[in-house]
TrEMBL record:
NCBIfam families: menE (TIGR01923), PRK03640.1 (NF002966). It comes from Pseudogracilibacillus auburnensis. The gene is menE. It is an enzyme of class 6 (ligase). Pathway: Quinol/quinone metabolism; 1,4-dihydroxy-2-naphthoate biosynthesis; 1,4-dihydroxy-2-naphthoate from chorismate: step 5/7; Quinol/quinone metabolism; menaquinone biosynthesis. This is 2-succinylbenzoate--CoA ligase. The lineage of its organism: Bacteria, Bacillati, Bacillota, Bacilli, Bacillales.
Length: 484
């Protein structure tokens, strides 16, 4: 696909299916593909008056809104790069990402602008942009698959977030791989409740214009609304994380699943066996998956046919994707490495991470796993220390670095504790120099620097942290303390 060009996805879909609904939302607002194209082009010309053009980095700080969808497509018409920011991050975290991405404009909502109070010179709300005049420019009709389209940040085990650059080709390959796995029906409607600033949510939005498929957009996840939407709005495909699945199972009770539902696509961690049994009893077509920001969403998927035969497996690589296990131990466990056109080009302004993450064209995920005799993947540990809480990835080192900034803290180690609601929550083991250092004091310091979901739910004050002969913290020993 090197330097291949193709018609702009939205323009092409507006030509093929002008009157088909592209976006529905909970406010009963609908946009056809033709209307979406027209509004996106208009928005693009208004943004252009702010000096935004090819390769400009434009950050979008927003919840799931139709305006956000329009803004992302508008940036594609300017050949600009959409930098998608997590609304749950603190001001300090957002400031770092804006600097690292070399953003020139922030598009946001009135509420988030007032809430975050970012130190950034050029910030515009959707409403601010709507009243601008339109620039007299010619918008492109073609896209180059090698061009960058989006950027989003993923935390690394070193604690510093890394910006992942996605090309049009990455998103195209991801969409095609998903379709070849799940199939495509003319009446498909995908429920988009995952945040668009996460790759799982963004990928649904882009599949919409590639497939010519309706997306039902929920601004914010609500378990009652989620259930009602699935049951009443002719939803055929649902992307969700384990927490959403648990809540849906509780609500559905003995009510049969509507015939129009054909797929629940699950990401964000493995599913406990009791949950899988409930899924089978209720005959819910569940597809488990494995993927990450760097692979533009799912890259491995387990179909419902193998849910019990291959219990605990993530499945097999999607079409166009390849997977290997490197440096296997005696049990066949090693690092999961992947290759394919959906894998990112690299991290922005981070050559060191790029050099360490790729080898001979293979991306080293940092996750450990093994393949069984039928080549089904089993993930043993997601980046070893990764905590997955309600579908959000939390890296202990990021929290540890902030806590170490508190006066009187000598050492700290953060691990995940099992939680019935969120799957896992972070907890901290702290070594302090004096007893005057309290959890309240630490909380006051870190809450302005970290998103709320990263704040440790409990702090254990200990005399020392268990270390091995190499002076590395033995986190499994800390996990043993939680069970005592």
């Amino acid at each position: 696909m090197l330097n291949e060009t193709m018609p702009h996805w939205l323009t092409k879909q507006a030509e093929l299916s002008p009157h088909k609904i592209a976006i529905e939302n909970t406010d009963d607002r609908t946009l056809s593909f033709l209307q979406l194209e027209q509004e996106s082009k208009t928005f693009a010309k208004k943004i252009a008056t702010l000096g935004i053009g090819e390769n400009a980095k434009v950050a979008i700080l927003s919840t799931n809104r139709t305006d956000m969808v329009i803004a992302i497509h508008a940036l594609s018409y300017l050949k600009a790069v959409a930098v998608l920011l997590n609304t749950r991050l603190s001001k300090q975290e957002l400031q770092y990402q804006l600097k690292q991405s070399e953003t020139t404009l922030v598009i946001t909502t009135e509420r988030l602008r007032n809430d975050k109070k970012l130190d950034f010179p050029l910030q515009k709300t959707y409403s601010d942009i709507q009243v601008l005049n339109e620039a007299e420019i010619k918008l492109p009709t073609q896209i180059n698959v090698q061009d960058p389209f989006t950027m989003m940040f993923t935390s690394g085990t070193t604690g510093n977030p890394k910006g992942v650059i996605h090309t049009y080709g990455n998103h195209w390959a991801s969409a095609i791989g998903s379709m070849l796995n799940l199939g495509l029906n003319k009446d498909d409607k995908w429920l988009l409740t995952l945040p668009i600033f996460h790759v799982g949510g963004l990928s649904i939005l882009l599949r919409s214009v590639i497939y010519g498929m309706t997306v039902f957009l929920m601004e914010k996840y609500d378990s009652n609304q989620f259930y009602e939407t699935i049951m009443e709005k002719k939803i055929t495909i649902i992307s969700l994380v384990t927490l959403m699945l648990k809540q849906f199972l509780k609500k559905v009770g003995k009510t049969p699943l509507p015939n129009h539902v054909r797929c629940f696509l699950l990401g964000g961690g493995s599913v406990p066996e009791p949950i899988l049994k409930q899924v089978a009893e209720k005959q819910i077509p569940l597809f488990q998956s494995y993927g990450m920001t760097e692979t533009s969403s799912q890259i491995v998927t387990l179909s419902a046919d193998y849910a019990f035969e291959k219990l605990g497996s993530a499945g097999k690589p999607l079409f166009q994707a390849a997977l290997k296990i490197w440096n296997q131990n005696e049990e066949g466990i090693g690092e999961i490495v992947v290759k394919g056109p959906m894998v990112m080009k690299g991290y922005v302004n981070n050559e060191q991470a790029n050099e360490s993450s790729f080898e001979d064209g293979w991306f080293k995920t940092g996750d450990l796993g093994y393949l069984d005799e039928d080549n089904f993947l089993y993930v043993v540990d997601r980046r070893t220390d990764l905590i997955i809480s309600g579908g959000e990835n939390i890296y202990p080192s990021e929290i540890e670095n902030v806590i170490l900034g508190v006066e009187g803290i000598v050492e700290v180690a953060v691990i995940g504790r099992k939680d019935e609601t969120w799957g896992q929550v972070p907890v901290a083991f702290v070594v302090r120099s004096c007893s005057d250092v309290s959890q309240q004091m630490i909380d006051e310091h870190i809450k302005i620097k970290l998103a709320s979901f990263k704040l440790p739910k409990k702090m254990y004050f200990v005399q020392s942290l268990p270390r091995n002969a190499s002076n590395k913290i033995m986190r499994h020993k800390l996990k043993d303390l939680l069970e005592e």
